[in-house]
């Protein structure tokens, strides 16, 4: 699945000041990614505030991205939740023809056992007409998908092709890379340790910061994949302070402030998220000005 090697971006959902989906800003965001070297796009992931969107708004986001993309980049659709039956129903009922894969977050809040996680993803794999990328983000889900569970899923279901690994744990990431079958994609979901994960044998990233600095971050990832270590780390350390900034008050709070500064969309979020504080906004604006 070489189309998912490199830099993917988890797109935000731009909103207007009156909290409607901002279609024109979304088009601008998609074009900004394509024009600056991003390899694939993730639509309606958690960064896209998908939990706050209605079914009709999700359809609107999908149609807008598909129309603007015009088949230029592979698209991945976020389909996940903490009720397995609902996820299965959604996968069976959705038209996935415009997507190359689905990204499915591990169930949150419920805190399932490893067996529960396995059975959840077994149901997802059997319901999906497209390849599945697992998504492990313990900081948000309150449970950790262990490398042994990932290995079991990878061996048992050929349409489970990879994992977005966002535990922020390099030891776990290395164990995972070492344990999974050859060809199984280990994709960083943590912007700060993307480069070391790539150098350890990972396949790239599904990134948040990359949609603010798509050319620079994707160049860093490509340098890492090519083992141009010194030049890659030079870029990493230039970008790194902005990663801390955009996550300081939660995601996608900071990246929306950055995209507003870059003229892509308004700095507007839906409750329970609120826009970045004046202090953080000033720091993000200053970083962009001086980058």
From TrEMBL:
Uppermost EC category: lyase
Swiss-Prot/TrEMBL keywords: Amino-acid biosynthesis, Cytoplasm, Diaminopimelate biosynthesis, Lyase, Lysine biosynthesis, Schiff base
InterPro entries in alphabetical order: Aldolase_TIM, DapA, DapA-like, Schiff_base-form_aldolases_AS
GO molecular function, one term: 4-hydroxy-tetrahydrodipicolinate synthase activity
Pathway: Amino-acid biosynthesis; L-lysine biosynthesis via DAP pathway; (S)-tetrahydrodipicolinate from L-aspartate: step 3/4
Subcellular locations according to the entry: Cytoplasm
Positions bound to pyruvate: 47, 206
Enzyme Commission number: 4.3.3.7
Main localisation: cytoplasm
Domain of life from the UniProt record: Bacteria
Active site location: 135 (proton donor/acceptor), 164 (schiff-base intermediate with substrate)
Reaction(s) catalysed by this chain's protein: L-aspartate 4-semialdehyde + pyruvate = (2S,4S)-4-hydroxy-2,3,4,5-tetrahydrodipicolinate + H2O + H(+)
Site (Part of a proton relay during catalysis): 46, 109
Pfam families the UniProt entry points to: DHDPS (PF00701)
Purpose: Catalyzes the condensation of (S)-aspartate-beta-semialdehyde [(S)-ASA] and pyruvate to 4-hydroxy-tetrahydrodipicolinate (HTPA).
NCBIfam families named in the record: dapA
Family named by the database record: Belongs to the DapA family.
Subunit structure comment from the entry: Homotetramer; dimer of dimers.
Protein's UniProt name: 4-hydroxy-tetrahydrodipicolinate synthase
Biological source species: Salinimicrobium gaetbulicola
Lineage summary: Bacteria, Pseudomonadati, Bacteroidota, Flavobacteriia, Flavobacteriales
